[in-house]
């Protein structure tokens, strides 16, 4: 895992990008912009310290379904897909299955928006 700093307005990832890891907000704030938000001015969701984003892509390896941007000077902790998979491999098979199902359901709900 590594710390990454983003300037205000900097895109962390875009919808359609390959999901290569997940992020935890250390300080600052991150805006999540869903595909239906064409203006990308006001975020659909605002995340603050300790909140996680980008997790669905590392669970099911599908491309990013939203765009994430730093809303101010922001530090995140980045957990690569490989590191996440190593940690997940140490967990119970039931937990892995439940996570995959929840990710699928969330993606389906987002498609309906």
Major sheet summary line: 4 strands, antiparallel
How much helical structure, as a percent, in the residues?
Answer: 25-40%
Order of helices and strands: EEEEEEHEEHH
Enter the CATH topology name: Jelly Rolls
Average pLDDT value? 89
Strand content: 25-35%
Count of all domains: 1
Tally the helices: what do you get? 3
CATH homologous superfamily annotation: Jelly Rolls
From the alpha-carbon coordinates, what is the Rg to the nearest angstrom?
Answer: 14 Å
Which residue ranges are poorly predicted, with pLDDT under 50 across at least 5 consecutive positions? none
Strand order of the largest sheet: 1-8-3-6
Please give the number of β-strands.
8
- Helix/sheet category: alpha+beta
Question: Any descriptors?
Answer:
alpha+beta, single chain, 113 residues, Jelly Rolls, four-stranded antiparallel β-sheet, 3 helices, 31% helix
Brief overview, please?
By secondary structure, the protein is an alpha+beta fold. The chain contains 3 helices and 8 strands; from the N terminus they run ββββββαββαα. 31% of the residues lie in helices and 31% in strands.
Overall description:
31% of the residues lie in helices and 31% in strands. By secondary structure, the protein is of the alpha+beta class. It has one domain: Jelly Rolls. It is globular and about 40 Å long.
């Amino acid at each position: 895992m590594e710390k990454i700093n983003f300037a205000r307005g900097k895109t962390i990832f875009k919808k359609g990008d390959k999901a290569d890891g997940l992020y935890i907000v250390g300080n600052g704030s991150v805006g999540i912009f869903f595909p239906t938000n064409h203006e990308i001015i006001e975020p659909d969701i605002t995340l603050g310290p300790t909140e996680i984003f980008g997790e669905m892509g590392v669970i099911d390896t599908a491309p990013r379904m939203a765009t994430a941007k730093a809303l101010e000077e922001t530090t995140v902790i980045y957990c690569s897909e490989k590191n996440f998979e190593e940690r997940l491999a140490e967990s119970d098979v039931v937990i892995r299955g439940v996570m995959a199902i929840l990710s699928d359901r969330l993606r389906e709900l987002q498609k309906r928006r």
